[in-house]
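Narrative summary of target 7.
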Amino acid sequence: MRRVQVFDVNETLLDLAAMDPHFQRIFGDAGVRATWFNQMIQSALVATVTGVYHQFGAHAMAALEMTAEQAGVELADDDKEAVATQLRQLPAHPEAAEALRRLRDAGLRLAALTNSTEQVARAQLEHAGLIDAFDLVLSADAVGRLKPAPEPYRMAAERLGVAVDQVRLIAAHAWDVAGAARAGCATAFVARPGKVLDPLVERPEIVGADLAEVAEVILAVDNDSDGRR
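Modeled conformation, tokenized:
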């Protein structure tokens, strides 16, 4: 049985650099976008570890307010709306569509698994022109626990009708890869610029600089035509 390929969305498939003009306008520095995103992830992780659930979009807006306060910037409602709107309208990374097409053409099943709500994820993937590549678009919101908690990965396996070890989670985040691995999934890491693996976590079987490289190895490893997987 061939593994199901389950993709993270933000930064893995979609390019957050499209948000840089908003951060340049609000903060005078496009680089603050990375600070905001890291704060969002930190807040989401703290909530998950302490057993509290908020939708990922709430963490995004809370992190924006925290980042503004740290920078001494007054944040207007229009600024929040601009950031929230842009999050739904991110472009795909240049190689994403072709990488997904190659995997589908080889007969592999594809799904998306994101911390965003399903409504937001669908809007994102539709805007990016990628949604038709996926059998399912899955959200951690369905289980009230954000990745990297184990529940979203196990839910994905259940929804896809496979054992958790027949899921390969593909992500550009070390924390996502770690969560998936510890939930029992196979993993692949997309080593986009600035993204590195955690040395305390077992290295994924597949690592590539972008989705094109990752897809090439997936086709060699998971596209087992004689059905042994």
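The first strand starts at residue 4 and ends at 7.
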